[in-house]
């Protein structure tokens, strides 16, 4: 948030409600006197939120460690009353026992399946039976069986993934009594039998291996023994069995699989291990009790975060120590808050009749390890489990995965219901003398008209989507070397996206910070053009000039001067002198460090040098960064135990365990990568987001080593909680202030080649409320031995805590900060304060007392922090850039051209977000920018009402704006103002009105919940297809709220990717995913469904025309074998080929002309009108076919094979042949891109039909005995077939010609352009061949096609 002073300077004096973000940015301010009645123009939508997290009924808990439970916590049998959930995670739907009933229930929830089940039952009633019961059930059983096989295969993969994670191994304490569970585990007979079999199998395997080892003399090698020991350990059946809760020897740490970890268990975690459950840290390998964890699978950040144990349990160093620790833990209930935890660990002495409390120590989130944390930079950690399974914080955060259906599927179900109505209406034309006869005739008619509904449509759609997913997965244009994306669950909604909601950091930007500039003591450094223009500056150039202007900078001279000045101050040991690694190179800073009199006046020379030294000393000391020396070896996932006193985990076994763990992880990774390639994987892992993400992040096969700077003699690798901190510490290092190492109480810094150790007295941590971080340190004696407070944070927070008398410096620094913000840079303000020893000691005593308080602890500590973080001396400010990803501007520009409205939801400052918006082409100079800043609720609503009244006319359209003009409006709103609007029902309705007008929207300073609420508001209120894209766990709720969720699976963890419907590696791939694959798949699915209904209409309606001549007696017209095989065999492959492989136009033209995509937004290819057209066309063609054959066979003297006049059997067989041939050819007519596959399908279906009629007609028992030879030998049949094909298809051909020639849409125009350019290339190629007899014109293929301008239609 901007501070109040700067806010006032931006206020427009004519209207204080609006403020301009920066100079030269047009903000349109209109004010009308309209009321608030516009919200009624749209049909009021239900805007209530249904977003919710997983819930648990668990309450506060008390976990006992080596202490007997009080009597009130025991049941009558003396066992614990409280039952804790298992650590087993289950995401599968079925078990072998429940699969058949549950899957059948799922399948027959579909109306179509229930309809055909009813038809099958009616067909088996003897009075109504029209054919063999086997043939009646054949279509339904086939579709049900195929669907069940598909579901079984998917659930098998779910089970496999569940087993892979639930069977991951970790170390826990064995031979100790976990008092929180029954003393003995009762097993059923079958479970006991299974355990016995496992033990016998394991024993036989071990004996076999032992015999082999004794016979093999070469196996005496130590390495071989280690390998065999590891194999035996991994195959030990005891690992797979639940803990017995019995003591059979001394306590020892042994392997256990994750699903057997219990509440109250001791865990032993090594460097690189994943945490299997939420656990309280007891001790670590560090003397101070610290450890570091990687959290990218929770929050999307790759940075390390510190955790610590309480001082009273640091003595726990061995398995024996664990067995002697007596305490209990009072914990809050399981909840989804990842950033807060409250509990107490109470140390106690056991007595004969209970225990005696010694001490109570409070616990917070820094003492808690969460499931999916990865231990880093710490040799080992001992912890006690507090939450397991679905009660862990990460599982409670995963939320209930919504069930999503595409828009076309919903519309298709409605059309299927209408078709049901048509089928029933066809039966109301019969009149029978009795009610029973009428009922029987009605039921028989239902059977013969049942095929108007395509039973195989649902399974065909699943098959086509899988086929389409295969093409996407194998698209090399969407492949990324650094991070492969392989989760695909393709939907036709990809071609109908109207709104895209995107995160910024890590999604649009790289989340790689670059130190660009700084302001120290009122002087600006880094403004010499060394790092080039920022993305925001490029956006500003586009805004003002329409193009990006180059910076005229002599880089060689700048760097040479920088290198010379650097060496005058110190000899680089840790600093880089490679220009490719430097984003900041300003020689002025070194001149000022040496107090060069030529650079500034003598009076402030020493003061400026002091400012610079304090500035970079603060950057090198005030942080939470961890340093690792850079080595050429790849990191090891395993660790080694520091002491041999851990029972049964000595050094040799540790190597074994490390090797076996790596082998297990490697094999697990291979299995997961193999399974993840399936197109339906994102559905398989919906409930497994946390653990799946954990494994993917912690078991990379080949960690990529960071690039090594060869100019640095002693390279350092910094691991930070945020990339900003790493960038700042690296910048200080390159300027001679190198952070070397840290302990709990000290930080060592190399300053100009000399090493100094600062004693860390207190760390006042950063949080979203404080918006600052401070460290209180004692300088080394060489630097004064005084106590100093270093503070860094947001400018609005730091400036208000400054001492008096710095007005000039504050004003100059504020100007620099404003300039940084306008350039799209992230700013941080730095200040310090030298503390009096007596004042500090008094404050420290109060702070210690507050930190030990049991009530209002955090409030007391914050108040004391406020007291000491005052009277600060301003040093300056830093400026860091988070650069855009490759191809982001082009992607957003193409999406906007395609008619997609792009909304960016970010936590950045308003000014920064606007500048990034221009750089990313989200905002353009043609747009009119409307801004609403945070104010009191009434003021925000008044501002927004004025915006709406200025834009929306009396009839709900933009005032005096046409459709093209309305696309030039953009809206920017602050998160605080957005919260006020979302809380007001009338404001939400008006947001829906304006969402159609605004082509781009930027929401700043928004929370994850606000992101989800905005997406849900637009999705439900506008009835639009929405897409959300993000890269972190904080984007999961937004991703799940949208119709389509896309996760960026890259270097920021995989939680967003696992929660999403689709996963890509970079934002730029979204362009191809939507404009190419989305368009193709929308066209394919639309045409496939329409052709499916069409071919059933042309098949069923001849039966109706026949009923006219049989007095609606429900006599069967087709032979039943044709009825059953029509959809399953005779007409299935062409529509599948159409749905799986058709291309309306090639990918290059879809990327070149994004406007083609808009036909999906406008639903031009699947709507009620087109459905009616296909339906009516099917009726017309059925009329042509039926009456053509009626005229041939029943109105003429055609003779049958037995010498009599031809009858209904000959006619119906001829109708079948005509219908099948026309239906297949019609699919071909509707195909845009003919391939050999489509030719093969159409010709193959026709040949299969001919062969079936001939072969089936050979047998005397066949209803069509001899019909095939007779029909194929008559010229009248071939004449009727030719006439029927031409006359039936003539209306569609004429309509298609007129439409494409006189009323072309965007797709027709682009196809014509493609054809024209192809002819021009061929013409140039032919001329080149004529000029050069050797075929010299062949190179013309590589020329870019000449594209004529498209005139506005």
From TrEMBL:
It is a multi-pass membrane protein. Its cofactor is Mg(2+). Its EC number is 7.6.2.1. The lineage of its organism: Eukaryota, Fungi, Fungi incertae sedis, Mucoromycota, Glomeromycotina. Residues 1057-1305 form the P-type ATPase C-terminal domain. Residues 81-136 form the P-type ATPase N-terminal domain. GO terms for biological process: phospholipid translocation. Mg(2+) binds at residues 503, 505, 1031, 1035. Residues 1-13 have a biased composition (Basic and acidic residues). This is Phospholipid-transporting ATPase. It catalyses: a 1,2-diacyl-sn-glycero-3-phosphoethanolamine(out) + ATP + H2O = a 1,2-diacyl-sn-glycero-3-phosphoethanolamine(in) + ADP + phosphate + H(+); ATP + H2O + phospholipidSide 1 = ADP + phosphate + phospholipidSide 2. GO terms for molecular function: ATP binding; ATP hydrolysis activity; ATPase-coupled intramembrane lipid transporter activity; magnesium ion binding. PANTHER family: PHOSPHOLIPID-TRANSPORTING ATPASE DNF1-RELATED (PTHR24092:SF180), PROBABLE PHOSPHOLIPID-TRANSPORTING ATPASE (PTHR24092). Keywords: ATP-binding, Magnesium, Membrane, Metal-binding, Nucleotide-binding, Phosphoprotein, Translocase, Transmembrane, Transmembrane helix, Transport. InterPro entries: ATPase_P-typ_cyto_dom_N (IPR023299), ATPase_P-typ_P_site (IPR018303), ATPase_P-typ_TM_dom_sf (IPR023298), ATPase_P-typ_transduc_dom_A_sf (IPR008250), HAD-like_sf (IPR036412), HAD_sf (IPR023214), P-type_ATPase_IV (IPR006539), P-type_ATPase_N (IPR032631). It is found in: Endomembrane system; Membrane. Gene3D superfamilies: Calcium-transporting ATPase, cytoplasmic domain N (3.40.1110.10), Calcium-transporting ATPase, cytoplasmic transduction domain A (2.70.150.10), HAD superfamily/HAD-like (3.40.50.1000). Residues 1321-1330 have a biased composition (Basic residues). ATP binds at residues 503-505, 725, 766, 792, 826, 906-908, 1005, 1011, 1034-1035. One of its GO terms (cellular component) is endomembrane system. Its main location: membrane. Belongs to the cation transport ATPase (P-type) (TC 3.A.3) family. Type IV subfamily. The chain crosses the membrane at residues 111-128, 1097-1118, 1171-1192, 1212-1229, 1236-1259, 1271-1290. The active site is at 503 (4-aspartylphosphate intermediate). Residues 1-43, 226-246, 1317-1353 are annotated as: Disordered. It comes from the Eukaryota. Pfam families: Cation_ATPase, PhoLip_ATPase_C, PhoLip_ATPase_N.
């Amino acid at each position: 948030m901007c501070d109040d002073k700067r806010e006032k300077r931006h206020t427009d004096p004519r209207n204080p409600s609006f403020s301009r973000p920066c100079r030269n940015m047009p903000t349109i301010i209109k004010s009308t006197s309209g009321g608030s009645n516009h919200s009624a123009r749209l049909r009021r939508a239900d805007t209530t939120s249904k977003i919710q997290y997983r819930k648990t009924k668990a309450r506060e808990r008390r976990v006992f460690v080596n202490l007997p439970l009080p009597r009130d916590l025991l049941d009558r049998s003396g066992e614990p009353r409280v039952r804790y959930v298992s650590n087993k995670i289950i995401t599968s739907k079925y078990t072998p026992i429940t699969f058949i009933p549950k899957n059948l229930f799922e399948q027959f929830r579909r109306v179509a399946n229930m309809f055909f089940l009813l038809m099958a039952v009616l067909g088996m009633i003897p009075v109504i039976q029209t054919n063999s019961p086997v043939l009646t059930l054949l279509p339904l059983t086939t579709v049900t069986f195929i669907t069940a096989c598909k579901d079984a295969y998917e659930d098998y993969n779910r089970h496999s993934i569940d087993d892979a994670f639930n069977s991951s191994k970790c170390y826990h304490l064995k031979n100790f009594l976990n008092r929180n569970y029954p003393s003995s585990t009762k097993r059923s007979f079958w479970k006991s039998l299974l355990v016995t079999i496992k033990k016998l199998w394991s024993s036989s395997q071990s004996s076999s291996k032992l015999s082999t080892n004794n016979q093999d003399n070469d196996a005496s090698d130590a390495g071989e023994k280690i390998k065999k020991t590891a194999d035996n350990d991994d195959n030990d059946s005891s690992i797979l069995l639940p803990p017995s809760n019995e003591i059979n020897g001394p306590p020892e740490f042994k392997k256990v699989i994750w699903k057997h970890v219990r509440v109250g268990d001791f865990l032993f975690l090594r460097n690189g291990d994943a945490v299997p459950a939420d656990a309280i840290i007891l001790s670590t390998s560090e003397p101070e009790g610290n450890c570091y964890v990687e959290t990218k699978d929770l929050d999307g950040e790759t940075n390390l975060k510190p955790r610590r144990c309480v001082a009273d349990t640091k003595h726990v160093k061995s398995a024996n120590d664990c067995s002697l620790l007596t305490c209990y833990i009072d914990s809050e209930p399981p909840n989804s808050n990842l950033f807060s935890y409250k509990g107490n660990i109470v140390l106690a002495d056991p007595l004969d009749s209970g225990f005696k409390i010694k001490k109570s120590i409070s616990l917070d989130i820094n003492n808690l390890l969460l499931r999916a944390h990865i231990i880093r930079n710490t040799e080992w950690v001992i912890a006690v489990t507090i939450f397991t399974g679905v009660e862990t914080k990460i599982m409670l955060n995963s939320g209930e995965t919504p069930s999503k259906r595409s828009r076309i599927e919903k519309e298709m179900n409605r059309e299927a219901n209408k078709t049901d109505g048509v089928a029933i209406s066809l039966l109301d034309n019969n009149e029978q003398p009795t009610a029973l006869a009428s009922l029987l005739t009605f039921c028989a008619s239902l059977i013969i008209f049942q095929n108007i509904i395509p039973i195989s449509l649902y399974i065909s759609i699943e098959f086509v989507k899988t086929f389409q997913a295969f093409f996407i997965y194998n698209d090399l244009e969407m492949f990324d070397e650094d991070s492969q994306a392989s989760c695909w669950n393709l939907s036709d909604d990809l071609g109908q996206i109207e709104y895209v909601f995107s995160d910024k950091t890590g999604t649009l930007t790289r989340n790689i910070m670059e130190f660009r500039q700084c302001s120290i003591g009122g002087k600006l450094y880094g403004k010499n053009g060394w790092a080039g223009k920022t993305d925001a500056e490029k956006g500003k150039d586009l805004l003002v000039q329409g193009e990006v202007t180059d910076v005229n900078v002599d880089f060689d001279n700048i760097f040479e001067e920088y290198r010379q000045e650097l060496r005058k101050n110190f000899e680089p040991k840790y600093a880089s002198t490679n220009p490719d690694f430097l984003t900041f190179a300003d020689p002025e800073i070194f001149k000022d460090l040496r107090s060069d009199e030529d650079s500034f006046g003598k009076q402030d020379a020493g003061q400026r040098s002091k400012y610079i030294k304090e500035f970079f000393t603060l950057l090198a000391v005030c942080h939470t960064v961890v340093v690792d020396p850079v080595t050429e070896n790849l990191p090891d996932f395993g660790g080694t135990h520091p002491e041999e006193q851990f029972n049964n985990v000595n050094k040799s076994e540790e190597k074994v365990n490390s090797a076996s763990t790596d082998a297990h992880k490697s094999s697990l990774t291979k299995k997961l990568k193999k399974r993840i390639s399936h197109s339906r994987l994102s559905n398989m892992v919906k409930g497994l987001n946390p653990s799946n993400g954990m494994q993917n992040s912690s078991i990379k096969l080949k960690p990529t080593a960071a690039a090594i700077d060869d100019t640095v003699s002693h390279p350092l690798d910094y691991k930070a909680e945020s990339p900003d901190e790493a960038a700042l510490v690296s910048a200080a290092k390159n300027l001679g202030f190198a952070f070397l190492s840290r302990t709990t109480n000290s930080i060592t810094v190399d300053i100009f080649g000399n090493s100094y150790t600062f004693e860390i007295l207190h760390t006042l941590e950063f949080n979203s409320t404080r918006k600052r971080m401070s460290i209180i340190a004692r300088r080394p004696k060489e630097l004064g031995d005084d106590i100093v407070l270093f503070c860094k944070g947001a400018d609005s927070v730091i400036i208000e805590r400054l001492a008096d008398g710095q007005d000039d410096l504050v004003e100059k620094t504020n100007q620099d900060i404003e300039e940084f913000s306008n350039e799209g840079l992230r700013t941080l303000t730095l200040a310090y304060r030298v503390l009096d020893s007596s004042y500090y000691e008094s404050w420290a005593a109060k702070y210690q007392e507050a930190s030990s308080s049991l009530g209002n602890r955090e409030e007391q500590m914050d108040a004391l922090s406020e007291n000491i973080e005052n009277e600060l001396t301003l040093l300056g400010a830093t400026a860091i850039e988070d650069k855009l990803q490759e191809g982001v501007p082009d992607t957003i520009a193409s999406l906007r051209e395609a008619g997609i409205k792009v909304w960016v939801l970010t936590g950045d400052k308003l000014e920064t977000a606007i500048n990034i918006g221009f750089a990313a082409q989200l905002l353009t100079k043609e747009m009119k920018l409307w801004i609403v800043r945070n104010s009191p609720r009434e003021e925000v609503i008044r501002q927004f009402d004025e915006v709406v009244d200025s834009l929306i006319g009396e009839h709900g359209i933009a005032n005096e704006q046409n459709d093209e003009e309305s696309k030039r409006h953009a809206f920017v709103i602050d998160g605080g103002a957005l919260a006020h609007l979302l809380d007001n029902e009338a404001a939400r309705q008006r947001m829906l009105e304006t969402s159609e007008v605004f082509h781009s929207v930027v929401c700043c300073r928004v929370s994850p919940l606000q992101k989800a609420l905005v997406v849900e508001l637009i999705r439900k209120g506008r009835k639009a297809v929405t897409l959300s894209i993000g890269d972190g766990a904080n984007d999961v709720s937004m991703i799940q709220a949208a119709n389509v969720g896309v996760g960026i699976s890259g270097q920021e963890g995989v939680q967003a990717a696992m929660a999403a419907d689709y996963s890509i590696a970079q934002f730029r791939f979204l362009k191809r995913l939507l404009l190419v694959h989305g368009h193709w798949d929308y066209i394919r699915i639309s045409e496939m469904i329409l052709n499916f209904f069409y071919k059933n209409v042309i098949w069923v309606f001849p039966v109706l025309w026949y009923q006219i001549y049989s007095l609606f007696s429900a006599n069967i017209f087709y032979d039943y074998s044709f009825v059953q095989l029509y959809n399953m065999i005779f007409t299935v492959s062409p529509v599948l080929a159409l749905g799986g492989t058709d291309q309306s136009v090639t990918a290059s033209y879809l990327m070149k002309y994004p406007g083609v995509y808009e036909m999906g937004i406008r639903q031009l290819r699947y709507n009620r009108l087109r459905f009616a057209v296909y339906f009516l066309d099917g009726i017309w063609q059925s009329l042509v076919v039926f009456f053509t054959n009626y005229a041939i066979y029943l109105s003429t003297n055609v003779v049958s094979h037995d010498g009599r006049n031809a009858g209904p059997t000959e006619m119906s067989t001829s109708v079948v042949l005509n219908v099948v041939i026309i239906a297949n050819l019609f699919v071909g007519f509707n195909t845009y891109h003919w391939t050999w596959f489509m030719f093969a399908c159409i010709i193959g279906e026709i040949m299969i039909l001919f062969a079936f009629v001939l072969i089936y007609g050979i047998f005397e028992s066949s209803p069509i005995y001899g019909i095939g030879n007779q029909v194929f030998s008559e010229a009248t049949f071939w004449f009727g077939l030719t006439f029927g094909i031409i006359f039936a298809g003539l209306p569609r051909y004429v309509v298609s010609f007129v439409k494409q020639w006189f009323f072309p849409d965007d797709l027709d125009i682009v196809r014509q352009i493609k054809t024209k350019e192809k002819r021009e290339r061929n013409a140039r190629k032919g001329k080149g061949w004529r000029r050069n007899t050797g075929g010299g014109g062949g190179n013309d293929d590589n020329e870019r096609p000449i594209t004529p301008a498209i005139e506005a239609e």
